[in-house]
Structure formats: structure tokens, C-alpha cells
Q: What sequence folds into this?
């Protein structure tokens, strides 16, 4: 492979381009993300759905992986749209609801539709199948009345 000499400006421009392309793909093909926790909670109350808050930071590799590989999967989108309302919180800029503390990124906090109880909280990435299993476990925990302690 021939050696290519490029400067910092070109590397930065390429990185920004690739990051923006990924963001556009996620926006066009990913699950609906409500811009604030309050908006997500209002929809969850109205539709009797679980609120899923993703705690993230902008350049978290695991967060980007989940967005680009898991949340654009049709099965994941269908499961989330059926039973969940999704929002994201940048844990460096905003506080998590209910006094929750960041577990790291990405982290996922599942909250009852009335906004009063945490069903569970999880940190880390996974595959599509693992995430689908997690969503099923969250639904089952809510049905059994089992909440995070």
C-alpha cells in the first residue's frame, strides 16, 4: 500500500465527515429519540410505555456502536417503539432523572411510565440479540413488579 502524506487538517475533516455521516444514518434509520426526558415522560404517561434513558457522551465508542449497529436494527426498533419511549442524556452536561448516578457510557436506565420508579439500570454495549433479550427482561420485570433497589 502506498504511503500517503496528509496533514492534520485533512484528518480532522475526514473524521468530522465520518462522524456526521454516521449521525445522519442513525437519525434516518434509527429509533425515534425524544429530545428531553420530560418530553419522553409525557409520551410514556400518555401511551403507558417504559422510558428508556441512554446515558452517553458525544465521542463514546460504545454509544456510537449501539447507535449504528443495534438501534437501527428493525427488530430493535419495533420492540422499542412498541413498549418504550427513548431519550438520551449527555451525562457530562445534564443530570439523570430521579437522582440516578452515571454508571459509565453507554448506560441505560429504564423508568416506569409515571416517572417514579427505576425498573433497572445497565451499563455497556451488546449485540442486537442481547439487547432484545434485555428489553424482554425489562418488560417482564415490570409485569412482576420487580424494581431496581
A:
Amino acid at each position: 500500500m502506498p504511503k500517503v502524506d496528509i496533514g492534520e487538517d485533512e484528518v480532522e475533516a475526514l473524521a468530522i465527515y465520518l462522524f456526521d455521516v454516521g449521525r445522519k444514518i442513525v437519525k434516518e434509520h434509527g429509533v425515534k429519540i425524544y429530545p428531553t426526558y420530560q418530553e419522553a415522560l409525557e409520551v410514556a404517561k400518555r401511551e403507558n410505555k417504559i422510558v428508556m434513558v441512554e446515558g452517553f457522551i458525544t465521542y463514546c465508542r460504545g454509544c456510537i456502536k449501539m447507535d449504528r449497529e443495534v438501534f437501527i436494527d428493525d427488530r430493535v426498533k419495533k420492540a422499542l417503539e412498541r413498549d418504550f419511549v427513548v431519550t438520551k442524556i449527555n451525562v457530562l452536561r445534564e443530570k439523570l432523572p430521579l437522582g440516578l448516578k452515571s454508571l459509565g457510557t453507554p448506560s441505560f436506565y429504564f423508568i416506569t411510565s409515571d416517572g417514579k420508579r427505576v425498573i433497572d439500570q445497565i451499563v455497556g454495549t451488546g449485540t442486537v440479540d442481547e439487547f432484545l433479550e434485555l428489553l424482554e427482561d425489562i418488560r417482564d420485570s415490570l409485569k412482576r413488579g420487580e424494581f431496581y433497589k
